[in-house]
Amino acid sequence: MSTFAANITTMRDDISQSVSQRGYGAYDEENRRIRETADELQRLCSLHEEKLRDSQDYGSRFEIEQRVAEQYAKSVGKWIPMDNIFELGIPGPSGNENDTYVSNHCVYKVNNLLNSGGICKLLEKILLHNTLFPNTFYRLYGFAGYDGRTVMPVLCQKRIKNAQPATTIMIDTYMSALGFIKQSIEGRYTNGDFEIWDLVPRNVLVDEDSDVYVVDAEIKRTDKK
Description:
Blueprint: H1 3-9, H2 11-20, H3 25-52, H4 61-75, E1 79-81, E2 90-91, E3 98-102, E4 106-111, H5 119-132, E5 138-145, E6 151-158, E7 164-165, H6 168-177, E8 181-182, E9 189-190, E10 194-197, E11 204-206, E12 212-214, E13 218-221
Parallel strand pairs: 1-5
Antiparallel strand pairs: 2-3, 3-4, 4-6, 5-6, 7-11, 8-9, 9-10, 10-13, 11-12
Helix pairs in contact: 3-4, 3-5
């Protein structure tokens, strides 16, 4: 039996063990921190909106969120000037949404918010990713930008070493083991509670032990109403 076939045989048990451990350690602590950050940004945005509602300086929700995030990041020591961004690591592949910087143990993703619609919405998506794929959970490292301009969240994800893109069959098998049903569009899956798409080889890795890692995905909750 091949290594991949052997891993698939026990994948359901391995995933169940992983899920059962979600309430412990760094994973749980990071999700709590992301949740607190998202809630605090929402609270600060609401305060600014109320304060500026009758003012000529009132801007869009996105603009308010940007300024609030900048002030918040500076107040908690999480502000990263763009001139210092290359200190994160060696520039890696860039996509429509992220510029990446690779260090020995971590891949930093500087998210330009083009696909998310804002910082708080991105953080909500990250929490969904961390819930469904805890072996590639994201940390919120900080916020990057130039003073008074666009603010971009900086996410950190464990680097999967000696990995290569997974095949479509590997992805289908992995998602099936998680209880997801493949849809007619390639790379799209649902389990009734969540819909996940863009699970294509460039976003899913397999390491030398044939373990599968979803490193990027689009996720939303399914509205059952």
